[in-house]
Specification:
Blueprint (H helix, E strand, L loop, with lengths): L2 H24 L4 E4 H11 L1 H21 L5 E10 L4 E3 L1 H6 L5 H4 L6 E4 L2 E14 L1 H69 L5 H34 L6 E4 L11 H11 L1 H22 L4 E11 L9 E10 L7 H68 L4 H36 L2
Parallel strand pairs: 1-6
Antiparallel strand pairs: 2-5, 3-4, 5-7, 7-8
Amino acid sequence: MSLSKLYKIIFVLSLTQILISTKALANDQVQTISLSQALNLLEKQNYSLKQAKSRSDEALAIVRQATAPLLPKLIATGNYTRNSDKAEITLGTLFSQLPLPASAQNNLPPNIVMQPQESFSATGSLHVPIFVPTAWADRRAANETAAAASATIDSTRLQLRTVLKNAALLSNAAETIVTAAEQAVIVAQEQVQLAMRAVQAGTAAQLSILQAQTYATRRESDKVRALAELERSRLAIAIILGQSEPIKIELEENSDTLQQAKQQLIDYALSHRPELLAQNSLTKAAQAQLSSAWWRLAPELSATGSVFASDIEYPSGKKNGWRTTIDLNWTLYDGGFRYGKKDQAQAQIVSARASADALRLSIIQEVEDTTRELQVAQEQLRLALKQRELAAQAAATAKRGFAAGTTGSVDVLDANDKLFQAEMSLANAKAQAGIAKIAIDRAVGR
């Protein structure tokens, strides 16, 4: 057996286990969906978004509670009473003993029951608030808080969509790197065959075969690592979407570049960022709470109407009746509670305004940073394309030189390695350029 054949057998045996593992990884069934499908899954199944929606529902329920003091209240009560003794004023018996005319004897007053032995009664009451200013202010505060919670949903959705799109871009970059690694393995195997032929022709030393085989093994290792990274990135997408199996998202090519001026982006962000909208709503809620605290100094006016019935006659001689009242409640001193509420609301206003101003400055900085990062990412992508082109030319030249016997094995392997590195750099540069574009959309609230 010739030495070249022995090298070939050793090389094939050394790669068998790696080829089996990579084939198993490559043959895994992966669910592939479009970006629109992924966004729909995100809306339905992401747990962070579900929590944000539940907090918004909770805020809306508080609005309902704050509205209750402004609406009429209808109350129905019924009771049964059993007394140990019975007491009544027997007016009819008393008057019958008096010397009255015959006409008067026929119209004696009925007995009045002061305490019946037992009785059944029912009452229906309608309470209508007429002037309750604190309740209106509290409801306005609750509405603004609910608006802030709703804006928080938009903020969470925007953040999650950004994370999802970034994960999809990184997954696509990992897939590109896998393709580059597979191509590098093919190139490395071709170099092994070229080295074997060169050794047989006497134009290269035996060391060139070992060098080529070592390089091929390293590229196989890179391929396994790239497949594992691809699997990890697809599983990360699945976790974001509330799934347990790896998912691949197909992204459409987007060649849009930054068209708007920086100041236009800043103006758009300040009017559309949900975080700022939420903070502004919280400021308005604090202002409404201050109004509520001041209105606690005013009186409250309400009206109540009741109807009642009993199986025992009332002192009026009837078993049913009605009652209407107008109530004016004016708390003159409550121990300082109203003033404490006022001080608390004033402090909340100061805090909310400071938070809004800080957030506004943070958004401006974020827009400026992301526009700058996009420019850098686009320039890096341009350089990565040029680097890949030059590396491909260098690798092709080295391969031809080695076949002609004018270039050494180390030069070819080095050129191939630089081409592989350039392919990975290009894949990462494309991903970073896409991430930079998404970052601008996130920064301006799109």
